[in-house]
Amino acid sequence: MHTYTSLVRHAGNEELFLFAELSILGLARGWPVHVHVEGLRGTGKTTILRAARAILPPLTRIRGCPYNCDPLAPHCPLHAGLSREEIAALGTETIPAPFLEISHAAKIGTVVGTLDLKRLTDADHPEAALLPGTLPQAHRGVVFVDEINRLADTAPELTDILLDVMGTKPGRVQIEENGLPPVAVPLQVSVWATSNPDEDPGPLADIRRQLSDRFDFVVQMGRPGRPEEILAILNAGLTTSSPWRTEGQDGERTRWLTGRAARLDRLALEGGILAQLADLYLRHHLESLRAVEALKLGALLHAAWRGAGAVEACDVAAVAAAALRHRTRAEDLRAVLAYLEQPSASEGIEAAGVLAEKGRATRAAPMQSRPQAAEALRRTWKQGPRWWWSLQDRWRQLLGARGAGRGSGGGGQGGGPRGEGGGRFPNPLDLPLVAPPRPARPLTELETEEAVTVIEGKAGSTNDTE
Fold first, then answer.
1. Among 3, 298, 369, 452, whose CB has the most other CB atoms within 10 angstroms?
2. By C-alpha distance, which of 23, 17, 15 is closest to 4?
3. 211 three-state secondary structure
4. How far is CA 296 from CA 23, 269, 274, 313, 337, in A?
């Protein structure tokens, strides 16, 4: 039996272990975190996620509630609207967090819910009631879907249900049966999924792009790269260690994650981090706003996971690849990661926070005269972040190369700010104009041979005319 803490970790699966634990942190805080793992078959994706079930924190629910109602916030058709006294009379119980799976043979009724035939056919007290499906029963837990790309290809109706569940946080599911009013149930569930993108029907992003975007993070599973890692995996099944020992270590990991999750309530998220995320979204033309939402969520969870008191630039960088690899092209992702790895990125965060704070102070200050406002703007401008001055220097170099050196020095007009290099922006009027060697001729003056190009085709084909 594979327990979570007995699994061998290597460079290829470290990212999966990290994001499984980040998702559990979010679950303990009441934040659903959806994780999709892509990789070659046989690399251990499913094994790790199923083993992570052992470190899910337990939950307290109203006694016997099939929807796992939180006693402090009941939501199901059976207990919504009950008073505290009525809930206390029913009692509570602590159970393991649900970890349920959706198979490829599942039907809508088994996933969402259906008519409870047992209660309907009760000889003494027949009644029409709903039986919750996999999703409502997984409230406050995890739903696992293996090979989700095949499910999206063969069961589009189940894919539509997952889209509804993952579209908002918390999600929702609607149970409908003939003769009964529809029941909408809010869901707080994390969806974990795996896929082999190199096999038919292909990557999930190519099959159902909307569903791929619903996942907060996409983890890339790799193979072990060193002989000792493979030997450790092969020897894991031959170990004489007691399973009770490794299960105890799983319990310790659960308590560790629960303690880390408690940090989320007092974790500081500075305005500079949010400013960087906004700049990153616009600078790199990200399509989905879920991208920056996932970056923010992941940075918060990562900061709590490492025991920090505030979110830092390293937390954003640690989750950026998983948050963006399914939402942008590979070359754009490389550009984002390179931007986040630069020291100027953290300086930009600090400067953005300073400028945002100055902006708030300026709005709260009394109205200034025009000279005072100009002087304040000049001081703020001079204290801008270094990456801005570096950008100005680069721009001046490009313009100076085109302007044969006219842009360097004091030839520019206006009192614009100087960069660290000491130059000013060049005056556009001083730049040389390069005209074509001769005026263009109107099409009406061209000979037919000059306006029409004939491309000789292959033997037996007609000529193509442009």
1. 298
2. 17
3. helix
4. 14, 9, 8, 11, 15
Cα separation, 289 vs 272, whole angstroms: 18
Are the beta carbons of 309 and 334 closer than 8 angstroms? no
Torsion of CA 341, 346, 352, 353, to 10 degrees: 140
Full-prediction pTM beyond 0.70?
Answer: yes
Q: What is the chain's mean pLDDT, rounded?
A: 81
Give the model confidence (pLDDT) of 86-123 as tens digits: 999 999 999 999 999 999 999 999 999 887 766 656 66
Nearest-CA neighbor of 321 among 313, 312, 332? 332
Burial 135-155 (b: 16+ CB within 10 A, else e): bbbbbbbbbbbbbbbbbbbeb
Residues of the chain with pLDDT under 50: 240, 350-368, 377, 381, 404-422, 462
* Integer Cα distance of 415 and 425 in angstroms: 10
Smallest CA-to-CA distance from 421 within 409, 406, 403 is with 409
Which residue, among 88, 86, 102, 20, has the nearest Cα to 60 in the 3D structure? Answer: 88
Residue 420 is predicted with a pLDDT of: 44
CB 102 within 8 A of CB 157: no
- Quote the DSSP letter at residue 268: B
Contact 203, 38 (CB under 8 A): yes
pLDDT of residue 416: 43
Residue 202: what residue type? G
Domains and CATH numbers, the chain: 4-58+96-264 (3.40.50.300), 271-353 (1.10.8)
| Sign, CA torsion 392/394/398/404 | positive
